[in-house]
Amino acid sequence: MEFTVGQIAEVLRGAVEGDASQRIDRLAKIEEARAGSLAFLSNLKYEHHLYTTGASAVIVSRTLELRHPVSTALIRVDDPYTSFTTLLEFYQQATRTGKRGVEEPAYMAASSTIGDNHYRAAFSYIGENCTIGNDVVIFPHVFIGDRCKIGDGTILYAGAKVYAETVIGARCTIHAGAVVGSDGFGFAPQPDGSYRTIPQIGNVVLEDNVSIGANATIDCATMGATLIREGAKIDNLVQIAHNVEIGRHTVVAAQSGISGSTKIGDFCVLAGQTGLAGHLTLANRTTVTAQSGVGKSIKEEGVLLQGSPAFALRDSLRANAVFRHLPDLERRISQLERGANPPEKS
Amino acid sequence: MEFTVGQIAEVLRGAVEGDASQRIDRLAKIEEARAGSLAFLSNLKYEHHLYTTGASAVIVSRTLELRHPVSTALIRVDDPYTSFTTLLEFYQQATRTGKRGVEEPAYMAASSTIGDNHYRAAFSYIGENCTIGNDVVIFPHVFIGDRCKIGDGTILYAGAKVYAETVIGARCTIHAGAVVGSDGFGFAPQPDGSYRTIPQIGNVVLEDNVSIGANATIDCATMGATLIREGAKIDNLVQIAHNVEIGRHTVVAAQSGISGSTKIGDFCVLAGQTGLAGHLTLANRTTVTAQSGVGKSIKEEGVLLQGSPAFALRDSLRANAVFRHLPDLERRISQLERGANPPEKS
Amino acid sequence: MEFTVGQIAEVLRGAVEGDASQRIDRLAKIEEARAGSLAFLSNLKYEHHLYTTGASAVIVSRTLELRHPVSTALIRVDDPYTSFTTLLEFYQQATRTGKRGVEEPAYMAASSTIGDNHYRAAFSYIGENCTIGNDVVIFPHVFIGDRCKIGDGTILYAGAKVYAETVIGARCTIHAGAVVGSDGFGFAPQPDGSYRTIPQIGNVVLEDNVSIGANATIDCATMGATLIREGAKIDNLVQIAHNVEIGRHTVVAAQSGISGSTKIGDFCVLAGQTGLAGHLTLANRTTVTAQSGVGKSIKEEGVLLQGSPAFALRDSLRANAVFRHLPDLERRISQLERGANPPEKS
């Protein structure tokens, strides 16, 4: 796949500065780009790379004022980041040959149905009474249990496991090894200290455009549904317990864990390795910084939280700043004490 | 499946208040229940839902005194929670059609044996010289390595992976994607800074009634056995390293990690995202709160730990309470210092 | 498999003290060893076990001076640990019958090639245009996507998943359920608060002798490569985000997470459950203690870090020591205040 700088500029409705006839055969980061590469500059923090890059062409803003001469061609556009993302999408569509058809041996129970234009890989498994839409892509070793529903255009990568009764919307992505619908961790303590397993008869519902990361785990509800709303993005190795609700367009970064029955609002961001206790409610647009642990509900929208246990980010930053010189603080107190109560023989 | 309130009360040996002829077709949480639903009230914290619930009937304690009129029927029993769990179990048995038989293609080496009344799903794999009991349920994509032993009534969900030599007791549950018996993380540093892999020749032993969560990982012992004792419950994404021992009826919540050779007693509770250093011993009934990190052995039974590094919960709560206003503390010290050593020209 | 103490001593070029004719049929830890077992003593912290062990023979240092009589035979060598590791390797080679050949049904696209002396298990899957070396071992339910390259002697355990375009070196070990090459977590926020998925067109490159733990996840690069250099050891349930680089012979312990574009040097050690923010650089030989969270780049080599947020281990230990008695500190301040500003009516 090879295009000229001019051809690409035309697609992006951009203006070329420099040699428009140069040939581009790959996309690259500006700091790693070599001849034949097209890069982009969006964040001006990285502007210095523009003057040293080996790229044949760089997509930049129409308003960028050069501070030094450049040896690369420029394609000037309104929004370099969006233009570049468009090219990435184009590249991906061109190279990820859309897999279609059925590879044998694949297993699908006779009572299940699947729409047009699908891919069912070798060793994929679809249980009884499933209803699966059009344009669904099912990679090898995917397991879909009985009575599941899966919407149009959803893709399940290798080894994704979907327990019985799960409902998955349209255009969802389930990455490799993710588990959707495992039993919630429900055990009733008995008088002798042992535990009785509480049956988990609920399910998991993923709305449209949800993404579930590799090896993430989403437990079914004890009763009712564990619910991931439209557009939510769940990263790798995240744990979502029974009866949790994740709001629309909320992002949960890798290795975070959300305990049972907690409800997270829309447009929230949980950074990596965060933990949330059970039965909490987090208002819309709550942000939790990495490794924080939230033990209380948040009612006000837009709050930033940090720490374990977490409190307001601003206060947490200040407390941490003092924490680092606690030994100093103690020394100062001791000195004050010596001043207030001088040793008898001084 | 539909029963009357009266029929259900009879099964539970409960007393009906209200219309016993109403039809019930589902179980639900009291706050989500609608007509046709049966709910329960055990924790009086949620009593207010009783007066507004849409449930057709609610299971309550014989001793509950109503503070307002109710529009739902009541089934009065001795222990609402246990009664409801019994109904959940009944429901689950009725709906999870017991899978039996062999779906093709399934793989089992000729040298292995499996008992009566089992399910071997399509794409399940059983290696050489395995001995597998009666009533074992093996979902698709389960891998069982050579020379494994698995007891009666154990269920392995989709994609569970059991390395060679593993021993699994009766009535265990291995959830989807769990890995049992992977090599311990053992590497001997060499003079040039590289690492030599130390062969891991031990195995994993799970006693009876053990539950292993989705995508959890349990490493085999370097020598001897990594041991999970009777009734222990291990949640999703937990890491258990080589030569660890987990005591009877101990609970390890999601994303916790236990380092090599640590021994945890009986009836312990590790909350979510906890970490334990290696070569520790934790006494029976130790509790570790969420996100805590334990670096020292605990000899006394019944201790509660918090923090990273963890210490006694009571002390940790107090220290954290002060931590939040550390900047205040520093201000107070500065003020004292100004008092004790006033600026020369004030 | 049974050898005499004398035969083993000969292999190790060691000297026997005691009965060289005793028969050894297993390797064991010194504290767990029984008759017929061979153990070793390297760390003198465990010397007391030498005088009570049930082992038939123990490998010890030539220079060890006994403080009590022993009832076990001794094999004296220069380096007991290395000698014992050699025996473990020998034992493992003898017992892990090298699997070879193809079990049916296995899937390999006609456009792919694989070298001599390989094992392709039942239900293993190899996509289009892959190039796979000699002596490669592929367990059941392994998925290898299109256009992958895998070097000689690499082993992929059950259910390992390798996305398209991945490059894996020679003598690598990919443990069960590990995911290599999943999409990076890249989403561009849109004006309405939803997210647009940024195509991830890069790949993952593992150099030689890399080990990836069970259920670990390694995301592909947005562009370019996520790179794990020679000899690096990645433990179970680790998350490595897009465009990360891990240096040579660096060790990352279980459940650690490394955010996008962070570069870690050679010979580093990240203990369990650590987290690293994105776009950082860590110098060679950096050590991060368990559960720590690193938010800043480290330029100096050999630094030890602790805490969340992490700073120098020595300072962190001191600050934590004071943290535990913060309530005390506050009391002392209050007392000083009362001294400096005594209550009016005292």
Automatic annotation (TrEMBL), chains A, B, C:
Homotrimer. Pfam families: Hexapep, LpxD. Its EC number is 2.3.1.191. NCBIfam families: lipid_A_lpxD, PRK00892.1. It comes from Hymenobacter yonginensis. It catalyses: a UDP-3-O-[(3R)-3-hydroxyacyl]-alpha-D-glucosamine + a (3R)-hydroxyacyl-[ACP] = a UDP-2-N,3-O-bis[(3R)-3-hydroxyacyl]-alpha-D-glucosamine + holo-[ACP] + H(+). GO terms for molecular function: UDP-3-O-[(3R)-3-hydroxyacyl]-glucosamine N-acyltransferase activity. Keywords: Acyltransferase, Lipid A biosynthesis, Lipid biosynthesis, Lipid metabolism, Repeat, Transferase. This is UDP-3-O-acylglucosamine N-acyltransferase. The keyword Glycoprotein does not apply. Residues 23-89 form the UDP-3-O-[3-hydroxymyristoyl] glucosamine N-acyltransferase non-repeat region domain. Pathway: Bacterial outer membrane biogenesis; LPS lipid A biosynthesis. The active site is at H242. The keyword Phosphoprotein does not apply. Belongs to the transferase hexapeptide repeat family. LpxD subfamily. Catalyzes the N-acylation of UDP-3-O-acylglucosamine using 3-hydroxyacyl-ACP as the acyl donor. Is involved in the biosynthesis of lipid A, a phosphorylated glycolipid that anchors the lipopolysaccharide to the outer membrane of the cell.
